[in-house]
Amino acid sequence: MSAAAPRRYFDAIRASGLGLYDAIAIDDRRLWIPTSQLEALIDCGLRGLRLAGLPLRTRSKVVKTRVCEVLGYEAPASFKRTRPRFPGQMFDVYIQKSDNLQIFNEDIAASRRYVIVRVSEADVVTRVRVVTGDRLAQLDTTGTLTHKYQARCIPGRDKAELICAQDTRGLRPLVAPAVDLRQVTAPTLLPVAREILSIDAVFARLSPLLGRRFPNAGADQERNRGAALHALVCKALGYRHYQDDGKFPDVRHQLLEVKLQTSPTIDLGLVAPDSTALLDMPAINRYRIRHCDVRYAVFHAAIVNGQVELRHLFVTTGEAFFTRFARFGGKGRNAKLQIPLPRNFFDA
Fold it and tell me: Which of 75, 122, 194, 311 could staple 65 via S-S, CB 3.0–4.6 A?
């Protein structure tokens, strides 16, 4: 990514005269800063910032003031207690000297961005990461998150089920029944009109994976299983290369989320598949992609002699997800959420 790419958002925001509390639509290509470029701007602008000797509240204000400056906003004399604190670009800022991220008095919001600032033992900013709420929720290993959606996967008589024969009404003009994906450099690229396979074509390309086996090995079995399945899915769809950046949906170029089930409970994260909330991505031919437009490939598998065997496949839109899978789960709220950040979190 060239330095000029994120810099143009700084110039546009400064020229607009908007404040950090003024709302900006997610599909505003001029003023809404995509997550990857938001990270590039803030990381570049904050690295090396010295915070030694500052009280916690002063340190927080200094960081937030610098964030305003590097994005093109005029910093206010005092920051409002809004949720999130930077509502225009929909993000909060957390300053981390330890790997224990603490969020007080609210749950993680899937559509919110979380700017996580790493500070060294000498109180110098060394790295900034920006992640969306749904990605942050995947890091929770404590079971403290209370608003995760779940559903139940019970296979039926058919080995492969296409739950809905067509994509959502808004997505249909953007899909194609046949697409040669061999020339696409990565399945994690943003989707492009007429490069998105129709849902029935996705179903046809993935159905032959049933019966396939791959090793159930490694210290982190769930992650390794998922990576192995994603690689098979990318190859079956027609990509030359497999890539997974941990973002939703898994195969971003196809608006496809992949689930591997060796138990009945499907973990769905912080946003229900049938939600009409907008995804954090640019509009495609002026159509704003919603969570319910995402397609889901759910593989039900069994562990056989140390290998994962794919036995059932379900393909559906998010919109029709709960017509086949029963939802369940409760709601609640913790006063404090604690999320241990992986050791390599700031290395990505």
Answer: 75
State the pTM of this model: 0.69
Same domain, 63 and 193: no
- Three-state secondary structure call for residue 129: strand
Query: Do both 63 and 165 map to the same domain?
Result: no
Angle in degrees, 0-180, between the axes of helices 4-16 and 56-71, rounded to the nearest 10: 100
3 state SS of 284: strand
User: In this model, does residue 332 exceed pLDDT 50?
Assistant: no
3-state class (DSSP) for residue 209:
helix
The band of 233, judged by pLDDT with boundaries at 50, 70 and 90, is very high
Q: Which runs of E-coded beta strand occur in 120-183? A: 125-132, 149-152, 160-162, 175-176
Looking at residue 219, its pLDDT comes to: 43
The token pair at 165 is: 């024969």
Instruction: Give the pLDDT confidence score for residue 267 in this predicted structure.
Output: 86
Q: Is 224 helix (H, G, I), strand (E, B) or coil?
A: helix
**Residues in CB range of 143: below 8 A, 6 or more apart:** none
Domain that holds residue 257: 149-328
